[in-house]
Amino acid sequence: MRSLRRFFAGAPFNVAAAYGLFGVVWIVVTDRLVAAFAETSMQAARVQTVKGWIFVGLSSIVVYGLVLSGQRDLQATNERLNTALQQINILHRILRHNLRNSCNVIQGNAELLSGELSGEPEEYAETIAAQNERLVELSEKSKRLRDVVFEDSPPRRHVDLVSLIDDRLAALREANPNATVEADLPDRLEVETDPRIGDALDELLENALEHNDADRPTVRVEVRSAGSGKVVIDVADDGPGIPEIERQVLEKGFEAPLFHSQGLGLWIARTLVVHMGGTFRIVDNEPRGSVVRLTLPPAPERGRSRPRSCPRPPRTQKA
């Protein structure tokens, strides 16, 4: 019985094939029986009518059973998923709480050691403090990624993409005075999209500088319309580039034991853009570095408004 249920639950083709085979066998066998035992055409016609109703009844019972079985399996799967999600959320909260407490203790002791030591031991204490800060940041990013994955997306709204990017770049210049920040933006570009697009840009800009090994790192943001209501955002850097194995992980959207990425920032940006219905790509920058390319989807057909833009010369600002 279980193998039969697996057969019908395996693919729609299996259900259609089984139903078609049952119908053919029914028609062939019952037509021969009618031809063999019906003495008059009137009797044959009546038997054919009864046979048709029987077939309808049997088919309804079979379809009802298959649908009911599928609904029960789906309900059981949903219950298991809900239980697993609840356990994951509890585990995540416990881990973050304990991690924050432990990191606070480590940070305090590292600062005390740094104040008491000098020379090479002091550098060790500073390294401990720096790595501890990275753990705190990783904890916050893990929460952000969990929220993106599990929480419902906010409704789309009209966003002035140019103003949003200008604000992000101004904050980036202020926080990184040794960086060169360039922008190639139209005068105005209003899109209807998920308001969390700013969070995705924050992650990309932070990643572009954090992993950049240049003395004066350069980040360039370019925005352009791609036709059919789509908008492309390029975030380019002149760093060592994103490793190929990490590119494959991000573009495929899953990890394996020997196939994984190193950080959460790009994952957060990718997850946000994919949830918006957009695409996430990584290409080489010339002559050095990487370009993360986001393609935002057009607005929904109902009340669609195409991006409104006016071209202007590229803007380059250095901090």
From TrEMBL:
Keywords on record: ATP-binding, Cell membrane, Kinase, Membrane, Nucleotide-binding, Phosphoprotein, Transferase, Transmembrane, Transmembrane helix
Reaction(s) catalysed by this chain's protein: ATP + protein L-histidine = ADP + protein N-phospho-L-histidine
Pfam families: HATPase_c (PF02518), HisKA (PF00512)
Membrane topology value: Multi-pass membrane protein
Keyword Nucleotide-binding: yes
Gene Ontology molecular function, alphabetical: ATP binding; protein histidine kinase activity
Disordered: annotated segments: 294-319
Family annotation (Gene3D superfamilies): 1.10.287.130, Histidine kinase-like ATPase, C-terminal domain
Annotated Histidine kinase domain residues: 94-300
TM helices/strands, residue ranges: 7-29, 49-68
EC category name: transferase
Keyword Nucleotide-binding applies: yes
InterPro entries attached to this UniProt entry: 2C_sensor_his_kinase, HATPase_C_sf, HATPase_dom, His_kinase_dom, HisK_dim/P_dom, HisK_dim/P_sf, Sig_transdc_His_kin-like_C
CDD domains, per database record: HATPase (cd00075), HisKA (cd00082)
GO CC list: plasma membrane
Ranges annotated as biased composition (Basic residues): 305-319
Subcellular location: Cell membrane
EC numbers on record: 2.7.13.3
Protein name from the UniProt record: histidine kinase
Organism of provenance: Halopenitus salinus
